[in-house]
Structure of F-box domain-containing protein:
Amino acid sequence: MSITIFETLPNEILIEIFDYIKQHEIMYLFFNQNRRFNYLLSNYYANDIDLRYTSYKIFNYYCCSIIPLIASTIRSLKLGYEHCSTEQLYLFSKHLVAFDNLKYLHLYCRQEQDLELYLKFVKNLYCLTITIDDHISLSNQMTRCLFNKINFLLEECSIRNGVFSLKNHQYLSICFLQILTIELEFYSHLLILFDFIPHIKRLNIKLKWFDFNVYSIINYDYKTIHMKIRHLSNLKLHFNQVLLSNGYNLIVLLIRHIVSLQHLSLSISYLSNYSVINGQCMEIDLLSPLSNLIEFNFYFRFSYNNQQNNSIISSFRNDYWLLKRKQKIISYTDRYENDFYLYSLSFVFDDIDCISNGIFNYKANDDDDYDDDCIFQSYSTISSATPYAYDLFWSLHDDILRMFKNIKCLKFYLNSCRLANKASSLVLANVNTIICHYLQPNQQLFEEHFSHMLPNVYILKIDDVSIRHVVDEQSFLDIRNTYFFKHITELHMNGLIIDDSNEKTDYILVFLRYFSNIKIIKLQFVIKMHIQLIQSILDLLISNKRCLLSFIQFYSLHNN
């Protein structure tokens, strides 16, 4: 009987075998075995390196033994992720080599300082993607690095959770970006930005504030916009709030002069002057000058006014919206009639929570009645929501929770974690993450609410106040037997307040004993970390006979 040695298999068979192995493990297992394997792996698996979810052992081996040998062949590199951003970026930076052919760089970091050593790669890139863990303002250095004529190869850039300021725009230069996703501090900075992105084709912009000093934006020469960004065909524009009385009119003035647009999405999370919203005016003032427009989506939220709001939806019941655009427009109020919502379907915005407070007084421009299935499917883009965000002391009703069929993350605050109906048959199968702040728990919360209604939750993010309340509640004597705690595999304990005058840490250890299947744990301290507490936590977790722990992270907000 003949015996086949693995190394003698033809390349085609080896590649078939490798298809069953995670890509980062292929290089770890077979690279540096022999020249043939090195040649094969360098040609097929060294172009795209993704080290985001590797163990420390594999990651360190890559840095020391693999990356230095294949750096010249790497075209795409992905580093950092939610649980291990700073650590990966720092370790990798100690082994930085020349990446002559690197064209695609994807980084996840906790703070801007983590990026400093990697900014020198930008001038060689085609595509740069940066995701920052916390929402922060970026420095002028980062701005100058991005908007620089040296980056003549950079065509696509996406910076998420970082806010740019273009106040010092005199230090910037024209870049060659064609696709850009960023957040700017002020609306006036968008007008400045147009001077530096003449080749832009797709622009996704968030604006944190609308300027109160309106001199520069009122006197801006809007007629020249189409010459500055003549290639722009896809614009997604989001405003956190527009409080200026003529703010919306200035936005319309801007958009109507970008005549090259084919796809337009406009969202305003809060608009103070609702009287400017009208279907006929939107058709004539905003859309009619855009002769190339194919797709248009919008979202507006403003204060509720019964008489005015009823007339708004009627203005969209005409041939232009129903026959020409064939677009469904809906409007409704929240449960408390605080706010009024108006937007087009299908819902294309992924970072807007428009359903947390329920849907009441529903109306549509096609006169269709409220259809649960249709509405639920419309919100498939929304990833997280906060039930009763405007009245955190109300208990939850099924008619509110039913809105979250497609939501993956639910945020709970204060007393909102009380069910109005003790026996609920509602199941939200898509929710996998719960975030708790200032929780006021009870036995029903875990046994009926979290356990039965949210059966697939495996990530819990909870703050210090909520942890103390859970531990102090006498009714939780049998909490460790609760279904919910048994199924949590990833635990984030945030905002832990332990200083020199507060050494009582037993509540943290008590809380950790409720969990028996933790694989990932992340502890965030507000002031500083306590070595003795960390040692006690490690002893507790490791003492579990069924210890499944694969990743643990401790860090302080003031000292990473």
Residues 1-45 form one domain.
